[in-house]
Write a structure and sequence with these properties.
Blueprint: H1 6-10, H2 25-33, H3 38-45, H4 59-82, H5 101-108, H6 113-131, H7 139-156, H8 160-175, H9 182-185
Helix pairs in contact: 4-5, 4-6, 5-6, 6-7
């Protein structure tokens, strides 16, 4: 039977997609440090939304890596097709185990980036919920919590003002200007 973390997991603030960010990852990891062995803590701290690890630190993390690589590869294929480019050089090794993702990628293909990211994050959240069924108090659940917290942190960093600044930066770069003329902002 897998080690259970009843006290730690039951003491964590609830996370809801679209809800408030109750704390940051660094605070969560500091809190978890007192309930985990050093190797458990290091494994948890190594978990990221970016699927760059070769192997997962637990069953859920391995599945997350495969899911996220599959999702990103589908997005690469869709974007390459739209730009009439070859996708192969951008693809990462994946197992293509998640059949319903093609429909999600097709759904977001023509949306604005913010709406598309919201739908993709909803799929990610749903995946994590499904993967923790029956693992509510083991290490898999802690990894899911860390990933969900990272999704909320990512969402908290996206707002209209920062999006407009990024768009203005791109426009300035494309137009090779120091400052954008006022008529471009409106």
């Amino acid at each position: 039977m897998a080690k259970q973390f009843y006290y730690l997991i039951s003491s964590l603030p609830t996370l809801q997609l679209g809800g408030n960010l109750p704390w940051r990852s660094d605070a969560f990891l500091e809190y978890a440090r007192y309930h985990l062995t050093p190797s458990e803590w290091e494994a948890l701290a190594s978990v990221s939304l970016i699927p760059d690890a070769e192997e997962g630190v637990c069953r859920l993390h391995s599945r997350w890596l495969a899911f996220e690589r599959n999702l990103r590869n589908l997005l690469v294929r869709m974007r390459a097709s739209r730009q009439k480019r070859e996708a192969q050089e951008f693809l990462r090794r994946d197992l293509d185990l998640f059949g319903g993702l093609e429909a999600v990628v097709q759904e977001v293909a023509n949306m604005n980036p913010l709406q598309a990211e919201e739908i993709l994050d909803r799929q990610r959240w749903l995946f994590l919920d499904q993967e923790t069924v029956g693992h509510e108090f083991d290490f898999n659940s802690l990894v899911a919590y860390r990933l969900k917290l990272s999704l909320l942190e990512k969402r908290a960093g996206i707002d209209e003002e920062s999006g407009n600044r990024a768009l203005d930066d791109l426009r300035r770069e494309q137009l090779n200007l120091e400052e954008l003329p006022e008529f471009i902002h409106g």
